[in-house]
Write a structure and sequence with these properties.
The complex is a heterotrimer of chains A (382), B (262) and C (318). Chain B has six helices and 13 strands. Chain B has helices at 37-52, 70-78, 94-107, 129-136, 191-197, 241-257, and strands spanning 2-7, 9-11, 33-35, 57-64, 82-87, 114-118, 141-151, 154-160, 166-172, 175-179, 202-206, 219-225, 234-237. In chain B, a hairpin with a 2-residue loop joins β7 and β8 (154-160). Helices cover 27% and strands 27% of the residues of chain C. In chain C, the strands form three sheets. A seven-stranded parallel sheet of chain C has the order 5-9-4-1-2-3-10, with helices on both faces. A five-stranded parallel sheet of chain C has the order 13-12-14-15-16. In chain C, strands 6-7-8 form a three-stranded antiparallel sheet, with no helix packed on it. Chain C starts with a strand and ends with a helix. Classes of the chains: A alpha+beta (382), B alpha/beta (262), C alpha/beta (318). Chains in contact: A-B, B-C.
Chain lengths: 382, 262, 318
């Protein structure tokens, strides 16, 4: 049977996370978007309340959330500010390969410290020459005694300037493509040969910290390798099954926020002697926006629910990611349209949301890549 | 210390209120319920008092409908130890509510050393239950409290009165303290707190269980209606400095001669 | 005809003005007035003009300062002896605290903060706002007498004609009994002005005030017309004004004769707290601000330009 009810705990989680988003994040979202600084106070407070690192299992100090729970939290945080949410969500993205593929000793060593104080992690996959073609990555890993040696450059690395821990994807031989990829954890940010680039200037998500990271003969102890050499591609795929619905959930949060702003404004703004909410042109737009938000949310919930049931969700995760991201872009654009001239001004919040929306169609697999994943799944069945 | 907090669930402040069909109350089917905002200060002050007095417990009590019990769960998630729910309609009068709270506190088997409440509930805005409850329990009460210090069961309380003046009270436990905004900053329910709250005890009673019957009703409401809309006012354009003086003079004239308010 | 006691509070040389509003509405009933402390001679004469048959100054030990228990004990005895059907008071800070406790001592019902009422056939029926004024309802009291009623100041309006009565002044001796919650000291508020809930004129500032120090232009306007200064939630949350100045759903609900909203957009929560004001003036640069839909007189302009001109203009005529 189908049941669309959230449990009473899930309702409370949602309520609490939304309250945090509205009271702590939204009032500061514009300020940090403008300054581009990391809002450490807000991020730390979110961590204190248990809103961060939802993937850490309870045996290692986590709270024990289901995948669906973490979607509910992400939607709320993204409602508060997409940029701050990216910073927080990037932790999960980096910690997921450890939670999914690490041994108990690694989980204890790498994950538990994240439950004891607010720490920041970076997921290092993308390179200057390899974005969508992730399997073509060129950063190398070589054995040297009881260490591995890493060489190469990573690009668009969220949290890099603040990270206490880096999860690095690298290859024993680029010619092996996905079969050569490994995943290793660097937990010493002062290691020789690690170079963090300048903060990128971005269209949106400006409070989040994005940089290039260069590894020159960086030595990492062998016990930091997650799984075996060559397990990396599989780990990345398992991670994306979790993280793509999460990014989709952030799109739902952003879209819901844009919709709520638009509805409120439409009731207040008077043109032709009545609130614009009374004009059909606006009503039709708002109805379309609402349908898109809810349809996106249902896809996110289903993609998360499949994982919680122990079922494969790769195809649904891509449905959710592509659909929610594209619809978010449309909803945000329409919200700006409803606000008219005020929508284009940074005095009002929808301009920032529209800039933020664009990134969701790009990171964590572009909307085009998601469609290729979906098509591949469809054709592999028949 | 046995600390009690009385909370109420009320419609969200942004909720649109409409009278029900027969005008006996409001339409409640689509209302989003929240913990009465002033009660959040009461819960926080109870938790602060508990933290300062080891071995204390915080029991949170609510009288109201059972369809949504989020307010009680939120209080448990914030750190209260156990909860009592007295099941009733959402529109009891103040006298019945106070009597039900008294009955529930007595039924808990614990004698209350201090009871925290909000200074008023923002649904019926009566400001009666705290004082009525204190009277029924024969304990002193201080309302509209914006400052609270406690040492060995003796409270120094600041009560806000007209013009922002403060009356400073001294009162020993047992006492009832009705809290106002500004007293503290209520904490969020943390996510681990929400998960832990699942396992905390929640006792449930009927009104009859706590000794309240319809004979206790003292106030009867009828004819719920929306306030009359005012006719449209007059609007003057005065962004241009050249017209400001004449516009202001005209408005002052209208205040004096048309509205007759100055 | 009902036997009614109106409880009042002594101010420097009079009693709270809401008392006269209540007396006007009670014309035709058998009405006494009582206050803790000495009712000034001038007030006795004035109360007589508006229908007070007996005016009682209640005196006893430990009643120089308010205490919930002391006042309740003292009045319990006095009211019990008087055989009253109804006890009224203005909905002041003191009465809001005292009356519920007092009504409980009689096992009796109370109607809080009514904005209008009738006494047809000697039976009270009131109107009161609920949900911060988003709704109105009729309120009636059942069960043991006396029934208690508090009335929102400025809601009824001053009586337009006199209804003279005997106005016999008398002292009554009362006992405060045991007082467990007592006032140790009183810290004066920043303003010596009337509280927002009693003020006849309110000047309020919103987010557009930009900073706390800018409230001085509202203070100057308020001084010119004897107003009290308030603030919107946005201004309070931004730290421009203390919460004691907040008007709105989670602040104070006010009903002055004149409410001047400066740089307040008019969020639904704010409107809920001031919509019953008799006359609303709004000053805002945004011609579409929702506050203008509630304003009797709207001025589309910059408050930093308009308010000083308004202050000067009002000074001329006050």
């Amino acid at each position: 049977m189908v049941n669309f009810d959230l449990s009473s705990e899930q309702k409370e989680i949602k309520e609490m996370a939304m309250k945090f988003a509205k009271n702590e994040m939204m009032p500061k979202a514009g300020e940090f978007d403008e300054s581009g600084k990391m809002p450490m106070d807000i991020l730390t407070k979110a961590w204190e309340l248990g809103l961060v690192n939802t993937c850490i299992p309870p045996e290692f100090g986590g709270t024990g959330f289901s995948t669906l729970d973490s979607m509910i939290i992400t939607e709320a945080l993204a409602y508060g500010c997409l940029g701050m949410n990216t910073t927080l969500m990037a932790n999960d993205l980096a910690l997921l390969p450890i939670a999914l593929g690490g041994n108990d000793e690694q989980k204890k060593r790498f994950l538990t410290p994240f439950t004891e104080s607010y720490k920041i992690a970076s997921f290092c996959l993308t390179e200057p020459g390899n974005g969508s073609d992730a399997a073509g990555l060129k950063t190398t890993i070589k054995e040297d005694g009881d260490h591995y040696v890493i060489n190469g450059q990573k690009m668009w690395i969220t949290n890099a300037g603040y990270a206490d821990l880096f999860v690095i994807y690298c290859t024993t031989d680029p010619a092996l493509k996905h079969k050569g990829i490994s995943c290793i954890v660097l937990d010493d940010k002062n290691v020789a040969g690690l170079e963090i680039g300048a903060k990128e200037k971005k269209m949106g998500h400006r409070s989040s910290d994005t940089r290039a990271v260069t590894f020159t003969n960086v030595r990492i102890p062998k016990e930091n390798l997650i799984g075996n050499l060559g397990d990396g591609w599989n780990l990345a795929k398992m991670t994306l099954d979790h993280s793509r619905p999460m990014v989709a959930a952030s799109a739902v949060g952003g879209a819901q926020c844009a919709l709520d702003h638009a509805v409120k404004y439409a009731k207040e703004r008077v043109q032709f002697n009545k609130p614009i909410a009374g004009h059909q042109a606006i009503q039709l737009m708002v109805a379309d926006m609402a349908m898109k938000v809810e349809a996106s949310r249902l896809l996110v919930y289903k993609a998360a629910w499949l994982l919680d049931q122990g079922k494969s969700n790769t195809e649904l995760a891509s449905y959710a990611k592509a659909f929610a991201a594209d619809k978010f872009m449309e909803v945000a654009t329409d919200a700006v349209q409803i606000f008219g001239g005020y929508g284009y001004s940074s005095e009002y919040p929808v301009e920032k949301i529209m800039r933020d929306a664009k990134l969701i169609q790009i990171y964590e697999g572009t909307s085009q890549i998601q469609r290729l994943v979906i098509a591949k799944e469809i054709f592999s069945r028949s | 210390m046995n600390i009690f907090v009385c909370i109420k669930q009320v419609p969200d402040t942004e909720t649109k209120i409409t009278p029900n069909g027969d005008g006996t109350y409001i339409e409640t089917s689509s209302i989003k319920w929240i913990m009465n905002p002033y009660d959040e200060f009461a819960v926080e002050q109870a938790l602060l008092t508990k933290q300062a007095n080891s071995g204390s417990t915080v029991t949170v009590v609510r009288v109201g409908g059972v369809k949504d019990t989020e307010a009680l769960r939120t209080a448990l998630a914030m750190g209260a130890d156990d909860a009592i729910l007295v099941e009733s309609d959402d529109n009891l009068d103040s006298f019945m509510t106070a009597k039900a709270l008294k009955g529930a506190i007595e039924k808990s088997g614990k004698s209350a050393d201090v009871i925290f409440t909000g200074k008023q509930a923002i649904d019926d805005d009566c400001l009666q239950v705290p004082q009525l409850l204190a009277g029924m329990l024969n304990i002193p009460s201080v309302s509209v409290v914006v400052g609270c210090e406690e040492a060995s069961g003796a409270f120094t309380l600041k009560r806000e009165v007209e013009g922002g003046a403060l009356e400073v009270y001294e009162v020993k436990s047992p006492a009832l303290i009705a809290c106002n905004k500004g007293l503290n900053t209520p904490r969020y329910a943390s996510l681990p707190g929400i998960m832990k709250a699942k396992r905390k005890p929640l006792a449930q009673h009927s009104l009859a269980d706590v000794g309240v019957s319809d004979a206790d009703r003292r106030v009867k409401y009828s004819n719920f209606q929306l306030p009359p809309e005012k006719p449209a006012g007059k609007k003057f354009e005065a962004m241009d400095e050249a017209v400001q003086a004449s516009v202001v003079a005209e408005v002052v004239g209208l205040l004096r001669n048309e509205a007759k308010v100055i | 005809m009902a036997k009614v006691l109106v409880f009042t509070e002594v101010t420097s040389d009079n009693v709270k003005s809401v008392t006269y509003e209540i007396l006007g509405k009670l014309a035709g009933n058998d009405v006494d007035v009582a206050a803790v402390g000495q009712v000034p001679a001038g007030a006795v004469a004035e109360l007589a003009k508006y229908g007070a048959a007996n005016i009682h100054s209640l005196k006893g030990d430990n009643l120089d300062k308010y205490s919930p228990e002391g006042y309740a004990n003292a009045l319990k005895e006095f009211i019990g002896n008087g055989g009253y059907d109804y006890v009224f008071a203005g909905s002041t800070s003191l009465a809001k605290d005292l009356f519920p406790r007092l009504s409980g001592m009689f096992d009796a019902g109370m109607a809080s903060e009514v904005t209008n009422f009738t006494m047809d056939g000697g039976t009270f029926a009131g109107t009161r706002p609920l949900f911060a004024g988003k709704c109105l309802a009729k309120v009636e009291i059942e069960g043991p007498k006396p029934h208690f009623v508090t009335v929102r100041p400025n809601a009824l309006g001053m009586p337009t004609s006199e209804t003279p009565a005997a106005g016999t002044a008398a002292d009554a001796s009362v006992a405060a009994g045991e007082i467990r919650a007592a006032i140790k000291e009183i810290i004066k508020g920043a303003s010596e002005k009337l509280d927002l809930t009693e003020a006849n004129i309110i000047v309020s500032g919103g987010r557009a005030m930009k900073e706390a120090s800018n409230f001085k232009i509202l203070d100057e306007l308020a001084d010119a017309i004897g107003a009290t200064v308030g603030a919107s939630r946005a201004a309070v949350d931004s730290g421009y004004a203390p919460h004691s100045m907040q008007v709105g759903q989670t602040g104070k609900t006010v009903a002055p004769s004149l409410y001047i909203a400066c740089g307040i957009s008019g969020a639904i929560q704010h409107l809920a707290g001031m919509r019953t004001s008799k006359c609303i003036v709004a000053i805002n640069t945004d011609p579409d601000a929702p506050i203008f839909t509630k304003a009797d007189y709207g001025i589309v302009g910059d408050l930093f330009q308009i308010v000083p001109i308004l202050t000067e203009e009002l000074k001329k005529i006050m």
